[in-house]
User: Fold these one by one.
Assistant:
Number 1:
Amino acid sequence: MNTSSSLPIPRLSRLARRLAGYWAPPRVVDFWASRISPAWSWDRPLARVVGHRRESSHAFSLLLQPNRLWDGFRPGQHLHVGAEINGTRVSRSYSLTETPRADGRLAITVKAIEGGRLSQHLCHATRIGDVLEIGPAFGDMVFPDTVDSPWLFLAGGSGITPLIAMTRELAARGMPVPLTLLYWVRHRDDRCFVDELRALATRYPNFRVHFFLTRNVAAAGDEGEGHLSDVPWTSLVPDLQARQVYACGPDGFVQSARAETASQARSFHAEAFTPPAFDFDDQGSVRITLAASQQTVSVPRGTALLTALEAAGITPASGCRMGICNTCACGKRSGATRNLRTGELEHEPVSALRLCISSASSDLVLEL
Ligand SMILES: Cc1cc2nc3c(=O)[nH]c(=O)nc-3n(C[C@H](O)[C@H](O)[C@H](O)COP(=O)(O)OP(=O)(O)OC[C@H]3O[C@@H](n4cnc5c(N)ncnc54)[C@H](O)[C@@H]3O)c2cc1C
Ligand code: FES
C-alpha cells in the first residue's frame, strides 16, 4: 500500500487538558488544535489516511491512523467513516479488514458505487494526509472467543470485507480449524485480496477458497460460475452439517445464503450491507414537526424518514442506514410510523425511533 509515515499527534497532559477545558469549549479547542495537527481532537475520534491503494477494478483500501480516542475492535466489526463533501457531512459504515495491529492502524476496503457519495469520495478524492471522522466499532458478527469447529464463509461482493479480517485472524493463529471461503463477484476483476487468498490456500491445507463469477466464464481451478443456488454443496462442502456459517453481502445474497445453508449447518451468522427491499403502498405526504429545532417539513409517506429529512435539507446523525447501529435513533412524541423492515405500524410515542428504517404514516412530532 502507498503509505506515509504517521505524523506525531500532539498529546496535551491531563492537567493541561483540564485547564484548557475551563477556558474554552471542546469545539474551540479542536479548532485551534487542528491548526497544529488535523487529526487531533478533544473529544472526536478522527483518523488520518496513511495509505491508499487499488484493490480491484472498483475497490480501494485505505489505511488509517486513528487518534487516541479510538477504542479498538474485533475482526468482523465495522465503523462509521465520515467526510465533508461539498459542505455536507456524509457518514457511512465500512468493515475493518485488518486484524488489530501493534501500530494501532486500521484498514477499510471501499467499493466505489456508481453515483455513491462517500464511496466515490473515499476511492477517488481522498488523499494521503486527509483526516476522516470515525466512530466506535460495532457489529455482532465478530470473531468468537472460542474457535472449535470448521467454518464456512460466504461472501457476496463487498461482503468479503469483514470475512477477510476473520480469515486473516485465523491465519495469524495458524489456521486452527478448517475454513472454506466461497466468494461471489460479477466479473473476475471485481475480486479483492485474490493473491493473498491463493497464497493462504497454498500455505494452509485446511483453508480452501473458491471464487464464483456470475458474469464471466470460469478459467482457473479455484473458479466456478453461477449463484448460491447453483452450488454443488455435497461435493464442495461435504461436511456442511459440522460447519459454522458466516455470510455477508447485499440483503438478497444473505437471504439466499440463509435459505441454502442455515437449516443444515451447525450454526448460521450473517450481516447484510444493504437494507431489505420494501414495497408498501403508502402514498401522499405528511408534516413532520422537529420539536428541538422548531422546524416543520413536509415529507412523502413510505420513504425512510432519514432519507426524507435529508432530502428536505435536514441532516440527522446517521451511520449504517439500515437499522444496525442506532446512530439515527431519536424520540417520537406523537404520530404513526411504519417499520420498513417488518411493515408494522407504530402509534405509540417511543424514545428511540430509528429514522433509517421508519417511514411516516401520519403527521409526526420528533425530538430533533
Ligand atoms: C455494516 C455495514 C458494513 C459495510 N461495509 C462496507 C465495506 O466494507 N465496503 C464497502 O464498500 N461498503 C460497505 N458497506 C456499504 C457502505 O456503508 C455504503 O452503503 C456504500 O459505500 C455506498 O455509500 P455511498 O455514500 O457511496 O452511496 P449513497 O450515496 O448512499 O447511495 C448511492 C446509490 O447507491 C446505492 N447503494 C448504496 N449502497 C450500496 C451498496 N452497498 N451496493 C450497491 N448499491 C448501493 C443506493 O441505493 C443509491 O442508489 C457497509 C454497509 C454496512 C451497513
Ligand atoms: S443509521 Fe444506523 S440505525 Fe439508523
Number 2:
Amino acid sequence: MRMSGLIERISGDGADAWVTHYAARAAEDRGEDVVVLSVGDPDLDTHPGIVERAVAALRAGDTHYTPASGREPLRQAIAATHLARTGQAVAIDQIAVLSGGQNALFAVLSCLAGPGDEVIAFDPMYTTYPATVGAGGATLVRVVQSAERGFRFDAAAFRAALSPRTRVVLLTTPNNPTGVTMTDDELAVVAEAAVQHDLVIVADEVYSGIAPLGRVPGLAARLPERVVTVGSLSKTHAMTGWRVGWLVAPRELIVGVEALTMCMLFGLPGFIQEAAVTALGLSATCEATARAYLDERKELMLAALADVPKVSALRPDAGMFVLLDVRGTGLSSAEFMRRLFATERVSVVDGAAFGRATDGFVRLSFATRPALIAEGCRRIARFCRAL
Ligand SMILES: Cc1ncc(COP(=O)(O)O)c(C=O)c1O
C-alpha cells in the first residue's frame, strides 16, 4: 500500500538496534534463559494507592470523554509539581495533559517546527527523536557531544549548528542514554542563543524527578516565554504503562496542542487522570522508592563491570542506564550487541541507535532484578574474556 510522506519520514530509522531486544523479549516469553538489559522499564509495581484510585474511579463509572487538555485537578497537581521542580509558577491553562512524555514531545514538535525549519538536538539522543522531529517535516540538526568530552554539552558545536532556520532546541536532562545532567553554565549558553535567535527550548525532563535531588537545573523559570517542559509519570512513579505525560508551555502553544489533541488523542481516560492526581500527591514516596531502587542497582552493575577486560563502564549522573565502552574489544558496538546475545543470551542496545557519539558503546539498563544484573554482568565478563 502506498503510504503518506509522514509515514515514510518516520519509518525505518534505527530499527536494527531493537532487533536483539525484541528477540530477547520473545525468548523470555518462551521461558528461555535470557537476561534482558535492553529496556528502561523498572520491575517496580505502581504504588497500590494509585492502582486503587484507578479501580475505584472505574467502578464509579469514570469511563466517559474528558476535556482535551486534561481535568483541572490534574493540571493543578502538575502545576504544583512543576513549581517544585523548576521554580516556575504557571496557570493551569499553560498545561496540556498528554499520553506520556513521548506523546507530549510529538505534540509540541508538531506545533513548532515544519518543513524548512530546523530542530537542534544533542547527540546521543533518545531513539524516538529523529522520527518525532521528522514527522512534521522539520529537519533534525545533530550536535554531537563526544565520548571524549564525557558526552557533555559542546558550546562551540552548538553555536556552529545554529542557522536562520533553527526554530527549536531540544534538550534532554538528564539524558537517555548517557545519564548526563546539564549544568547552569551549559544551559546559560542555550538561553543566550534562544533569546538572540528567537528560539523555543523544549526541555525533556522525564527523568528529573529521579535525579539525586529530585530536580535538575533548568531554564523554565528564567525564560518562561520560550521554554516548554515535557514531564511524565513513567519513570518517576513506576507508571510506564499508564501513559501519563504533560507539557508546560506558554498559553499560545497549549492552544495549538489542544487543536492537535482533538484530532489525535481526544483526552486521556478519566480514571487514569484520577489515578495521576493521586500519584502526584504521592510523589515524595514514589520518587524516593524509584531513586533507592535505581541507586542500589546502579552500584551493583558498576561494581560487577569494574574488572571486566577490554570494556569500561561510565557512571551516570541519573537515569537507569550505564554506557559500556566496547571500543577496546575490536568489535563494533552492533557486533558486540549481536554476538553477546548469540553466545551469552544477554540483550543490550547498540549505542549507535542513539547517535554517532555513542557508536562504540552499548547501553545497559539496570532497571531489573539484582540477580539478573549480576548474572548479565557475569556473562558479559565471560564474553569479553573469550574475545
Ligand atoms: C528521554 C526520554 N524522553 C521521553 C521518553 C518517553 O517516556 P514516556 O512516553 O513513557 O513518558 C523516554 C522513555 O524512555 C525517554 O527516555
Number 3:
Amino acid sequence: MALLEVKNVTRRFGGIVALDDVSFEVFPGEIAGLIGPNGAGKTTVFNVVTRVYRPDAGQVVFDGRSLLRTPPHRIVRRGIARTFQNLELFPGMSVLDNVVVGTHASAGWFAERRVRKAALEALDEVGAADVAGRPAAGLPFGMLKRVELARALAAKPRLLLLDEPAGGLNHEEVEALGDLIRRIRKGHDLTILLVEHHMNLVMGVSDRVHVLDFGRTIAAGTPQEVQRDPAVIEAYLGEAPESPS
Ligand SMILES: Nc1ncnc2c1ncn2[C@@H]1O[C@H](COP(=O)(O)OP(=O)(O)O)[C@@H](O)[C@H]1O
Ligand SMILES: [Mg+2]
C-alpha cells in the first residue's frame, strides 16, 4: 500500500491553476523524485500535503487516512516533515534551537530533554554538530541547508519532503548531499519525496520520478524511463539548463 496518495488534487490561486487534477503515489521506503520546470506546481504539492493549502478538489491520504482533516500543526505528529525551498530558519536563534523548534515538541522538561537529544543526533548525522551552539546567522549557506535537513530529521518523520535541497550548493556539496540522502533513507527507514532541479542528483538517488508541467502530471517512471520520455524532454526545452555549479 502507498504511504502517500495524492488523488486528483486541484489547487487554484486566482486565475492560476497551480495543480490540475494531479495524482501520484509514494511507496514505503522509496525515494520518489518530483521534478518539473519552474512554476510547475512542485512546492504547491508540498504545501497541500503539509496542509499549508487546502486543495480545491481531490484527496491526500497518508498511511491510509485522509490528511485533509489534520490541521497543519499536527502534520509533524502524523509523521511528515519537510524542508523549504527558501531557508526558513530563525537567524538570531542557535542552530540547536532552530532544530528543536522544528520538532513541534510538546512542552515539559522530559519532552525537552528528549527533543534536544534528537536534535543533536540529527545535527551530528548531517555533519552540523560542531555549529550547534552558534547562531544560524552568519553560517555558510551549505551549512544552513544541512541544518534545515536536521530540523526535519529531528522530528523523526516517516515521510520526509525535501524542496530543492541542492539549490545554491556547489558541485562537491551536491555530491555529498546525494550520499547523505541515501544514508538517511537507510538509517531511518524513511520514505522521501524529493523536489529537485538538479538532474544528476534527482536521477541518481530516486527510485521513481514524477514529472509535473503546468500543474499536470506528464510522466512517471524510473529515472531512465522519464529521461527519455518525449513529453518530459519537450517540457524542459526552453528551460535554462541547470548551470554546472
Ligand atoms: N500562494 C500563492 N499565491 C499565488 N500563486 C501561487 C501561490 N503559490 C504558488 N503559486 C503559483 O502556482 C504555480 C506553481 O507554483 P509552485 O508550486 O511554487 O511551482 P514550483 O515549485 O514547481 O516552481 C506558479 O504559477 C506560482 O506562481
Ligand atoms: Mg518550488
Number 4:
Amino acid sequence: MDADGLRRLLARTAELAADHLEADLETPVSRPVAVTELVAALGGPLPVAPSDPLEVVEALARDAAPGLVRTNGGRYFGFVEGGVLPASLAADWLSSTYDQNPAFHVLSPTAAALELVCSGWLLDLLRLPPDASVGFTTGAQLANVAGLAAARGEVLRRVGWDVDADGLPGAPPVTVVVGEERHATIGRALRFLGLGERRVIVVPADDQGRMQPGPLRDAISDGPAIVCAQAGNVNTGASDPFRAICETAHEAGAWVHVDGAFGLWAAASPAHRHLVDGVDLADSWATDGHKWLNVPYDGGFVICADPEAHRRAMTLSASYLARADGGRDGTDWTPESSRRARVFATWAALRSLGRDGVGDLVARCCAHTHEFVRLLADDPEVTVLNEVVLNQALVRVAADDARTLAVAAEVQREGVVWLGTTVRRGVTSLRISVSDQATTDEDIEVAAAAVRRAIATTA
Ligand SMILES: Cc1ncc(COP(=O)(O)O)c(C=O)c1O
C-alpha cells in the first residue's frame, strides 16, 4: 500500500471510530443477534486472493456492528466494565501503530521507560509501597496468577524449597487461605499454580462479603502460608479489613495477596480511601486498568512489595535474549514474553486525568451508584440488598427471584441501558456497576427510569 493509500485508510478508520462513538445515544446498548448471522456476515470460506485494506475495514465496521455491545458508554451497568478515556483510546492506536514489544528493553526503550514511569505513578496513586515492582498484565486474572506465583515461591523459599527449580512434587505443603466470597479468578490462579482450587481453607465472610479476621487467625497454621484477601467484592463492592488481616497473617509468617481488580482504586479517592485502610501492608496486589481507570482492553497490573520474589517467579532467560544494563525488561514482571505495549494507554490515562482526575472518576462513579439506588428505593417493590459503599449495588424486586430476572430481561430487551443479575447467598438480584467515566447524571436518571418501567411492565 502506498503512503497516500495508507493515509486514506487511517483517516477513514478514524472516521468510522468517531461515527461509532457519536452514535452512542441513538443506538441500543445491546440488541439480540444470532451468532450464526454474525458468522455468516463475517465468515464464508477463507478468501483466496488479497483484498484492498480499505474495503476490509469498511466490511469489518459494517458487519461487526450488529453484535457490538456498547460497554464503552455511559449507559452500560453490567459486570464491572470501564469505558475508554479519549487520550487512552488515541494512545492505544499509537501503540499498535508503533507495534512495540515491551518484553525487553532493547526492543523498545520507550515502552520500558513508560512502564517505569507508570509503575511510579500507579504506586503513588494507589498509595502502595514506593519501591514495589509492577508488571503490566492482560488483566486481574493474570495479575492474580503472577502475584500468587511470587507468594508461592517466597513462602517456600523461606523454608528452604526452590519451587521454580524443583516444582511442587515433594515440596512442603503450602496452606492457602481464602475468603468465602473470593473472586473466581483466585481459584483459577490457584489451579494454574498447582496449589489446587479445592485445597484451600475458606474463612467465613460477613453479610457484605468481607473476610472475618477472627476466624482467619485459626485458619493459618505453621509452615508456608498464603492469605488471599480482596478489595472490592464483585457483588457488594465491600473490601476486607486489611489492617487486621495483614497483622494476623504476618504474625504467622504468611504472605498476603490482595485481589483488587477494581476495589483497589478506592485508594485514589480521598473520600473512599478509608474503605481500603491497611491495604498497603499486604505483600502483593492485582488490579485492572480496563475497569476503573477506563483504559481500553486489555490492561491489568500485578504489584509486589518484594521485587526479588516477583522477578524470581516471572523471569526467563535464553542465550539470544539480550539484556540491557540498567534497562527494564518487562518480561521479568509478567507471565508473558512478547506482548502488546499496553502501557501506552495507561500512561495516557494517568497523564490526562492526573491524581485529581482519577480521584474524581472514582468518586463520581460511587456518587452515581448512590443516586441510581436512591431513584429506585422509593418503589415499594424494591429492596437494596447491600450497603452501597462503592460503585456496586444489588437490587431485588418484589422479594422474588423470577420477578427480578424478568425485570433484568425487560431492561435488556428494551436496550436503553444494560444491567445484569447475580445470585448471592441463594438470592437473585439486579447487579448495578457504575464504572464508566462517560456516565452522566442524565444517564443515571435514564437508567433508573428504565428499571422502573421494567418493574411496572413485569408486574
Ligand atoms: C474482584 C475481581 N477479581 C478479578 C477479576 C478478574 O478481572 P479480569 O477479568 O480483568 O481478569 C474481576 C473481574 O470482574 C474482579 O471483579
